[in-house]
Amino acid sequence: MKITFYGHACVEIESNGTKLLFDPFISPNPLASHIDMDALKADYILISHAHQDHIADVEAIYANTNAKIVSNFEIVSWFQNKGLENAHPMNHGGKWQFDFGTVKMVNAVHTSSFPDGSYGGNPAGFVVKLADSTFYFAGDTALHQDMKQIGEEFAIDVAILPIGDNFTMGIDDAVKCADYVGTDKIFGVHYDTFPYIEIDQSNAKKVAEKGNKELLLVEIGETLNI
User: Which residue segments constitute the domains of the chain, with CATH numbers given?
Assistant: First the structure.
C-alpha cells in the first residue's frame, strides 16, 4: 500500500487503485498550504471523530469526488443532513466488507463534538484489512487496553498513531500501543500543527528506536510504500 501524509492527522492510503482519505484537515492548516485539494481523488473518506481539525475539508473533497463517507452514525447523519448522501454508518465493534477490503471500527479514548458544539458520537479508530496489508488508524486517542485485542485479532503491518501528546498519547505511549497491536512500524500523525502538540522529532525517533520501533515521520505531501 501507499501512504501519503497531508498534515495533522490526514493521510491517504492507496491500495489496488482505491484511495482512502482519513480525517481531512488541509485547507485550514498553514503547514499544508502547498497541497492542492482539487487534485485529491478520494474514493472513501473515513472520519474518526467530529472535531473541526478532522472534518474541515470533508464537504469540499466530497463535492469534487462524491467519495463515500465512512464514520459513526452521528457523523454520517450530520453530513447527510447537509446533502452528502453517499455514506456508510458504523459503530464500535462492527465491521463491514467494502470493495477494497474490510473495515472494523474500534475504540478510541478522546472526546467528540461538531464545530457548533453538538454531539458527535463516540470517537473511534479503524482497522483496515486490504488485499496486500492491514493497518490500524487510531484516530485521536489515549493509550488503552482495548488495543491489545487488535493485536490478538489482526496482523498489523503499520499503526498510524497520534504522537503529539497533550490532546492524545505521545511517543512513549505510542510505542506501547505498537506493542499492544503487534507491529514494529509507527506512522506518526497529529503533531506540530499547533503549539500544544509541537514535538522534538529527533527525540521521538530515539524513543521509538529504544522501544525497537521504526517511527515514520514524513513531509506533508510525501508518499511512502509500506
Answer: 2-225 (3.60.15.10)
